[in-house]
Amino acid sequence: MASSISSSALLLRPRPPPLLRRAGRLRRSSKPYFTLSPIFASSSSSSTTAPLMKKEREKEKEKEEEVVIVGGGIAGLATALALRRLGVAAAVLEQGASLRSGGTSLTLSTNGWRVLDVLGVADELRAQFLQIQGFCFSIREAIPEIKPKRLVMRSQDGRELRSFRFEDEAPGQEVRAVERRVLLETLAGKLPPNTISFSSRLRSIAWQGKDGTLLELDDGRQVLAKIVIGCDGVNSPIAKWMGFPEPKYVGHCAFRGLGQYPEGQPYESKVNYIYGRGLRAGFVPVSPTKVYWFICFNSQSPGPRTTDPSALKKEALDLVQTWPQELLDIMRNTPDDTVVKTPLVDRWLWPGLSPPPVAAALNGSSSAVAVVVGDAWHPMTPNLGQGACCALEDAVVLAGKLAPALTGSRGAVVAALGEYAQERWARVFPLTARASLVGSLLQWEDPIVCAFRNEVMIPRLVRLGPFLEHTNFECELLEPIASN
Ligand SMILES: Cc1cc2nc3c(=O)[nH]c(=O)nc-3n(C[C@H](O)[C@H](O)[C@H](O)COP(=O)(O)OP(=O)(O)OC[C@H]3O[C@@H](n4cnc5c(N)ncnc54)[C@H](O)[C@@H]3O)c2cc1C
């Protein structure tokens, strides 16, 4: 990273949270707010290129709404789409040569679906992925053997500990495992062509006086932005630049994969968790032909990075070779190259200690603002299945606050982002902590403690309704802006 946050930068402390308000109407501009043509190519230092770009920047001065999103993952594409629905165009810089095609599945709960509804893509996704609980879904007819839907918790020997029907204990809950690739393609498909600039890896970022923030890419291109939205994931360069510490390894890693059954998968549409000692696994049908599985295992360190996919799969199978046959069958039906291993990390956003997620250059009439969204801000362990759901929530809240503010002064933008920071911090900090706590409990190794978990906690104490309380999330519609 060529630059660090300058002394002229003001990190904004969030203001008290207002209620999420309906986004105001904007006039849709006939001109694009931003075009991703190189401002100045083949330079490595922002300071030496500044005079050369002056003329170009003069042209940019009028474009007060220039918004650049760094990262074309879930947070980045959802933010671009939410802004788009409010009449604000944003350019997305993605380091990959295309949308991430690998990756497995994500379980999205009611809150995630609420956001996808607001973004106008939920039904398209619902049509492709099985509903895990509650209501009948049409896919059911296609697979007559699917039985009533429920969540099952088991011990390592396959014995059933507890079984819930979501509709009994948490009515209205919507859970589906969604292929990440399809989710990204669906979000991207709703954006205007050329919104996403692929092979655009951010190398450095620096305030550029009152003109904005200068983003320098790996290939030497430079992009000047008024508003930078960092959606660049768990190792976010933008978060680092804003002063966030590295995410912390929590002591366990995950294997994930997608079992494939071209002739139709035979499993009930339910979430299955299998608990061992310092080791747990799970699987859930995604679609009529795919089943997602995961394994979490304790490990002192993340260990070396394995690139050989067949070695990864073998490592995963070795961990659970005596576990229930169904799990092994799904793993064996998984193409090697879909297996991924991830060290689990998180970052706790301690009040007063953690930097705020919004930074602005302090410079009189300054208009440079940066904000982080999703994993870039609040990486959390996947124990509640909420990382992507929260990234989606961030996107609509941010867009709902930012879009109306863009018609006002730069101070209004900064204030709107401060509201976003406050409102979302109150949501994501407790979830990050809770996810970590749940992970610690589930990764217990001590046999007595594990016996207590299996014989007392899960069968008698766990209540699904309160446990899923966090999936309640209300967000208002992002009303499409009428053209004029
Ligand atoms: C094992 C595991 C299981 C999970 N299961 C669930 C689940 O069931 N449900 C759930 O809700 N969440 C789950 N999550 C969490 C979820 O994957 C993340 O929260 C989600 O992907 C965050 O989205 P994001 O867009 O913030 O980051 P990412 O998805 O990481 O996207 C970041 C994007 O930024 C790009 N990028 C990075 N650096 C640069 C750069 N320098 N320049 C340009 N582009 C860049 C990347 O290429 C990428 O496209 C799980 C996570 C793990 C590890």
From TrEMBL:
Annotated FAD-binding domain residues: 66-256, 372-428
Keywords: Monooxygenase, Oxidoreductase
UniProt cross-references to SUPFAM superfamilies, sorted A to Z: FAD/NAD(P)-binding domain
InterPro entries per record: FAD-bd, FAD/NAD-bd_sf, MOase
GO function term, MF aspect, one: FAD binding
Region (Disordered) location: 1-26
Biased composition, class Low complexity, residue ranges: 1-13
PANTHER family, sorted: FAD/NAD(P)-BINDING OXIDOREDUCTASE FAMILY PROTEIN (PTHR45934), FAD_NAD(P)-BINDING OXIDOREDUCTASE FAMILY PROTEIN (PTHR45934:SF9)
Family designation: Belongs to the 3-hydroxybenzoate 6-hydroxylase family.
Protein name: Uncharacterized protein LOC109715112 isoform X1
